[in-house]
Design a protein that fits this description.
Strand content: 5-15%
Number of strands: 23
Largest sheet: 6 strands, mixed
Oligomer: single chain
CATH class of one domain: Alpha Beta
Strand order of the largest sheet: 9-8-10-3-11-20
Distance between the termini: 38 Å
Radius of gyration: 24 Å
CATH architecture of one domain: 3-Layer(aba) Sandwich
Length: 598
């Protein structure tokens, strides 16, 4: 998340932003939201070579080298925090080991209340013993249909070898901090209390603003139990890399290992962190979480259909390639579960897609404004002004069709965004791609006259069921004993907490999720792109998507029949990715040379 998580350049077309009112089961069907989906994906002609592709090419050249790993300090280590963003385990041990494990588990159950995670048999990778281990990686702002762009050979091969829905629904509002806390608590934002990136707490009489870490990382804001606290309570070591909220000393229980947020950290360094923790023989964590902000940051800065975001998507995919190869080198492919998610999608915005709030209501009646690009309004005299202002906003909403307006009482039930005093009493929720602004921050009329561009160029925070807000979930490992390429029904990110807990035998706390392992596939993903591409203003539709992602040929299908060979299948994709990256860089170089000689 760059600077503010939610702040677009001019877009040539108008987007149909009607809210999608479909259930999760209906959403999984091929025609869900078809009225606002466009089959053709934007493929922009790349005229300027992004310098980061030098790093991509170098990554593939050096993928067989062992990287030098530096030690990580425990959670008590101090350092400056910099924010610029917004029981179904498959036992593969022998029968005798299983018997010993069960007997030991029975004894432990009669002497302690600790979770089954402490009694699960260990596994052997040939050199060391491991307890069940799960890595959860969040790719901030990675929209589900980004998988269609031919830039993600590792992720597409991962999907073809694992289990996943067509997409995962975020929670409302679709912004970073609420959704990352939902991912690790299983609770809707109204239940866990982080209701936006920015909000006023009437009881504390204080404002939470996610980038002000002296305030936002105080434990008083974080009133729910995240998965690392669940694990540490049950004797399971955790290692957390930059996850939002992990520095807040929640319940005064710290992760065993903690990497604090570092906006300048390069992607390979994240892989180093994860592999280093797996190499800790005596104090190895079983639950590892990593946060990757790059796609969100560049999506805000350049827009979700820019040349720059294509390069960033490819960078992130190459990072996952490095991680998979590190697991393969350590013979951990049947020991470590790998779960990759995102928190929300991204929509293009522009100067002509702004809602000037000052022109609709008298802002002198407002005491506090929460959230963004949607706006929560707290009034100075709500008993007098709430109904009239609601009526004014509703008339304008019906007239323009660019936003919806709700009170807490009229908020759609599917938002689960009512039962918390931190939720403002009056909300202006823009259609996807629009933003609500005040003149003190951005004067729309003056900007349109002068040609000033609105920034950021990409936004999120809209109706969580809108296709442009769709996220991803992909899992593979011994806790997911499913046929390759398995498809499960679309679900919301409130389910992730239970899934992660089950994957290493943790007892989960009460939450809003209902899914538990093993997941129940309803078939296989079809050949070709897994996700329909939603229409987003600013994308060019005259060029069909280029499919250079995971190969779905019969030859590659045969390699996935034997489940342990999926890593080999993924390994085979690396050469294809390397060839693609080389071809891509060469084409950029030729374009540059042609431009220079022209």
């Amino acid at each position: 998340m760059a600077n503010r998580d939610d702040q677009g350049s001019a877009a040539a077309q108008t987007e149909d932003c009607d809210a999608v009112d479909a259930s999760a089961d209906d959403a999984d069907s091929a025609d869900d939201g078809s009225d606002i989906l466009d089959e053709a994906e934007e493929q922009e002609k790349l005229l300027n070579p992004p310098t980061r592709f030098d790093a991509i090419a170098d990554t593939f050249r050096k993928r067989d080298e062992r990287r030098k790993r530096r030690g990580r300090a425990p959670a008590s280590h101090t350092g400056q925090v910099v924010f610029e963003m917004e029981s179904g385990y498959k036992d593969s041990s022998s029968q005798s080991l299983l018997f010993v494990g069960l007997a030991w588990g029975a004894w432990r159950a009669s002497h302690t209340r600790n979770s089954d995670a402490n009694t699960t048999p260990t596994f052997w990778n040939g050199t060391h013993s491991f307890k069940p281990t799960t890595i959860l990686i969040s790719l901030d702002g990675f929209r589900a249909d980004f998988l269609n762009r031919g830039l993600t050979p590792a992720l597409n091969a991962f999907i073809a070898s694992g289990v996943s829905p067509s997409y995962m629904l975020p929670s409302f509002p679709s912004v970073t901090f609420p959704n990352h806390f939902t991912l690790v608590t299983g609770l809707y934002p109204e239940s866990h209390g982080i209701v936006s990136n920015q909000f006023w707490d009437p009881e504390l009489q204080e404002e939470f603003y996610y980038t002000d870490t002296k305030i936002s990382m105080q434990p008083k804001w974080w009133t729910a139990e995240p998965v690392w606290v669940t694990a540490e309570k049950q004797g399971v070591r955790t290692a957390i890399h930059m996850w939002p909220g992990s520095e807040a000393h929640i319940s005064h229980i710290e992760p065993t290992y903690l990497d604090k947020f570092n906006a300048s950290e390069v992607l390979p360094r994240k892989v180093d962190s994860l592999l280093h923790w797996l190499d800790l023989e005596d104090e190895r964590p079983q639950l590892l979480l990593a946060y990757v902000p790059d796609v969100d940051s560049d999506g805000h800065l350049y827009g979700p259909n820019s040349t720059e975001i294509r390069a960033t998507i490819a960078d992130v995919d190459s990072m996952l390639t490095l991680l998979v190869e590190g697991l393969l080198t350590r013979n951990l492919t049947e020991i470590v579960n790998l779960v990759v998610v995102s928190d929300h999608g991204m929509a293009t915005t522009s100067t002509n897609r702004l809602i000037q709030l000052d022109n609709i209501i008298d802002l002198s009646l407002v005491n506090h404004i929460d959230g963004w690009p949607l706006r929560g309004l707290r009034l100075k005299k709500p008993e007098r002004d709430l109904d009239p202002l609601y009526t004014q906003l509703l008339l304008e909403a019906n007239k323009t069709g660019t936003f919806d307006v709700y009170t807490r009482e009229t908020m759609p039930a599917r938002y689960h965004f009512t039962n918390n005093d931190r939720i403002a009493p009056l909300w202006v929720v823009p259609k996807a791609g629009y933003a609500v602004v005040e003149k003190q921050d951005f004067n729309v009329e003056e900007a349109l006259t002068s040609g000033q561009e609105y920034h950021p160029k990409g936004l999120h925070g809209y109706d969580h069921e809108h296709p442009l807000m769709r996220a991803i979930f992909v899992a593979r490992g011994p806790a997911f004993p499913h046929p390759p390429n398995s498809r499960v029904a679309v679900f919301q990110n409130t389910e992730v907490y239970n899934i992660v807990c089950d994957s290493i035998g943790l007892q989960s706390h009460s939450n809003n999720g209902t899914l538990h392992l093993p997941l129940k596939p309803n078939g296989l993903h079809p050949d070709g792109p897994k996700v329909e591409t939603p229409y987003d203003a600013g994308q060019h539709e005259n060029t069909p998507p280029q499919d250079v992602s995971a190969d779905t040929s019969d030859e590659n299908k045969e390699t996935t029949v034997d489940k342990p060979t999926w890593w080999s299948f993924l390994h085979e994709q690396l050469q294809k990715a390397k060839d693609w990256a080389k071809h891509f860089v060469d084409s950029l170089t030729r374009n540059k040379e042609a431009t220079n000689h022209g």
